[in-house]
Predict the structure.
Amino acid sequence: MPIVVQGEGVGVRFPGGRWVLRQLDFQITTGEFIAIVGPSGCGKTTLLRLLAGLIEPTEGELRVENSLARHSYVFQESTLLPWRTAVDNVILPLELQGKRDKQTRENAFSSLEATGITREDAAKYPRQLSGGMQMRVSLARALVNDPQLLLLDEPFAAVDDLLRQRLNDELLTLWENSNWTAVLVTHNLAEAVYLSDRVWLLTGDPLSPIEEFQNEQPRQGQESDRKRAGWKKSEDFHRQVEHLTTRLHA
């Protein structure tokens, strides 16, 4: 089912009177991958929480065309329950919906396998998993509900660069094989350009609160790892990252 998110004049004011976001106008359509970047404190996570319905705008209107759309949220930390195994952590959202049959467990295993976690590792507790594996479990938990909108708040910020690239590739493969729409908050500008269709720069300027950068790499179905690697080494890719970097620090 398609999902369209529309924001008109959206703003959020924190207790004490400080505005975090002001006069945001935007639209997200089905199947898009949006990356949000900007300086610390500009409201990136606040915008993600708005999209998740965790907070309400102080001003303006936020509309979701499909009011029954399923949302999933991946936090900066894996937020796994230490007393539950990997598979039991993934099952948790389904259990909260009253689903506890054999198929529920199989769905959890399938979600884990899609993110690179074997059945052997699925039986382990979070303390027995590496940081990268914990984030894979967290992603599997978000995907087990077959979401239409996946919201990611810097999920790979705590891992090393090599693992981060591998997780980025895995995330792209999952997205290309699915129908969900993704919105990612990141401080890594190369990651933003690599993953997204569009990059939103939150400027903090009420006269121009969002600047949008269109990804110049067209997405045409599933892309091979080799093609992605070539894109990341290309002159166009580095030009886009440099342009975004220059604008961010202007």
